[in-house]
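I hope you will forgive my troubling you with a question about protein structure. You will find the record immediately after this paragraph.
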Amino acid sequence: MAKLCSMLVSATFVLVAARGAGADGSLPLRRVRLYETGVGYFERTGAVTGKPAALPVPAGHLDDALKTLVVLSDDPKNGSVAGVEFGSSVSRSMARSMAGLTTDEAPLNLHALLKSLKGAAVELKVGTQTLGGKLVELSDGAASDLEECVAVPAKAGEAPSCAVQKRPVVVIFTKAGELRRIKVSEIASVRPTDPAYASRLGSALDALSDRSARVMKDLRVLAKGGKSVSLGYVAETPVWRVTYRLVLGAKADDKSQIQGWALLHNDTEEDWKAVQIDLVNGRPDSFLFPLAAPRYAKRELVTPESELSTVPQLMEKTPDSMWTGDAYGAGGLGLSGIGEGGGGRGEGIGLGSVGTIGHGAGTGSLGAPSASSMLSVGNLASVAPAEGVEAGAMFRYTLKQPVDLRAHGSALVPFLGDAVVARRIAFFAAAGDSARSAVHVTHQGNQTLPPGTLAVFADGGFAGESALGRMKPRETQIIQFGVDLDVELKQDAADSSDKTKLLGFERGRLVEHFVRRHVVRYTLENRSGSGRDVFLKLGYVNNAKVEGADELAWDSNADRASAVFKIGPRQKLEKKLYVDEGLTRRHDPKVLGSARLKELAASLPARQKKLVLEAAALVLDAEVRRGALEKRRAERRELSAEIVRLREHARALSRGAGSEAIAKRLLAAEDRAQAVQKRSAELESEAGERWRKALAVLARLGP
């Protein structure tokens, strides 16, 4: 096992794709490991020498390369890598500043480039003459003081005329001390003579190019010793993809063969020669991080207390002109100072908190049953083969032969050729649907199969297409690939009944655990000349027991069981399934009532039955009081109407005959109304008290 080279000083050095072994001493590419996340691990192996090797790297991949270098050596004492040197990357705004261009993303035309050379030493070629000097000014057409008369075609009978046009010019201060004005149209070429300026301009143009991410950067590996070392790094690569071929055996007992093909892409500028390819079925985390370009921290601008100018006051004026205001007019003199400080701009990424999505589910709303957690009726998932145990987060497929792949080329290469258990079936997602040609596949290998398209071949030819989901060792899947026109499955009758087994009490709700019994009758018909294994997908919870099928099969991808019925050629038969499901649902006790509580108590264990009957008696007492309360309320409404009528009569009679009798009746009615109101309050209080006691009794059922 190669040891991590102890002499590596920093974890931010890296080596990336070279063009292969050559006279420049570059390390040849020996291994590429491709991942499903769109990154690849590149490993180069060779002898390190004291001569630096220049290695080209796409600028867009440089950050990835710099953060993932690993140096491996079996003998770190006799060979080491001191570092990797490279030209710094620059941002677009920094590039424009370096070249003297404006930072407003204006187009890079000839005028802009010439203007960026103001003050620079240049060499102009004008016709056959070469002029050297400093470029003083560039004026565009509107601001130019050079005018030319351009002939205008004359009309018939008119004299020839010309139009005056301004021409852009360059002013150059020559080495002989002359100021020369040259029309831009006469300049054949411009060459900056300062090597440093030419280098900055070249770097800036690289960064500003639309192909800047693909510009090659030369890395120089600084190494000592002559021993063999390996340098590995991560870079962005196309995602490798999978496509399968499933060849079914001619007979039911014959083994089927699955062929896995991987689609690879070499998007580098380098030909892969005898490169060992590893295909990793895993997803390691990888992220982008700006690392290659220099970064500058912001500093606070601190200015002197006194406002000072960067331009001398007496550069273009005298004290006398300042005093008389000649330079500024009658308005007087305004003094202002302008100062500029240095600064920089830094960029980075925030690796702060990442929001996650929580997944979960409740235990069901009122009346909506779900699988019971207290009843153990059965386990349909027990028919699934034992789940494969992964040794790590990733599986690796190593191609048997090294690969030769040209730059920007692609290839379809085999990576898997295992025997599988593939059972040809007729599949029904539900009774009454059209039958689907399918296979029930069991993965018997030791490596997880990545997802991919699947072409099925049977009976000497093509049978259909589908997709294979990710499969761990010993998992099973039902894969549909066509229509089976010869098989029908219909549901003739179905009946179900519920039987309560346990009760619980959670958060003010009564939780019922019950067994639902299904009895379903089916009719199957096979019109073909060969027998069929018919799979019917079951829609029951996994906490269930199924009887009546010839067998049960499991689909790991759908997490569902299927009932299997075997039917012979040209046969019609009836099948009956008996299914017990362990389910649960929640109830509002106040909605249930005493009668329903007694029904639920009938099939409960003795302890729970006693508690529920006790609660039912209290609920019944509360219901009696609620009934009496409704009668009192009705009586109260009648008395209120009587009181209103009597008051109207009393006002009409005033002190006349019969007024005394009306007054007595009114007082009696008001007394009865007060008594009814008092009794109503008592009944409501008594009913509420009994409900509270009933809930307290039900709470003793526990969760």
About this structure: Helices lie at 62-66, 92-98, 110-115, 195-208, 319-324, 589-601, 606-653, 659-699. Confidence is low (pLDDT under 50) at residues 1-24, 327-365, 387-392.
